[in-house]
């Protein structure tokens, strides 16, 4: 997956999470699931792009 695709997925999931949280509440099971999915996408981005930059800078 290229960087732009992953960033787009993160932005889309963040928007979905906000909408679900507004509609169903921040602690609803759906909001928690979306939050976990967003966390996974952000972790994937960090694993692929952030740590690669950090390790090559040393």
TrEMBL record:
Entry's Gene Ontology molecular function annotations: protein dimerization activity
Name recorded for this polypeptide: Spo0A-P phosphatase
Organism: Neobacillus bataviensis LMG 21833
Gene Ontology BP terms: regulation of sporulation
UniProt-listed InterPro entries: HLH_DNA-bd_sf (IPR036638), Spo0E-like (IPR018540), Spo0E-like_sf (IPR037208)
Pfam families: SpoOE-like
């Amino acid at each position: 997956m290229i960087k732009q695709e992953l960033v787009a997925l993160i932005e889309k999931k963040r928007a979905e999470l906000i909408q679900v949280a507004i509609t169903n509440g921040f602690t609803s099971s759906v909001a928690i699931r979306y939050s976990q999915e967003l966390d996974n996408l952000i972790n994937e981005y960090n694993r692929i792009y952030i740590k690669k930059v950090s390790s090559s800078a040393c």
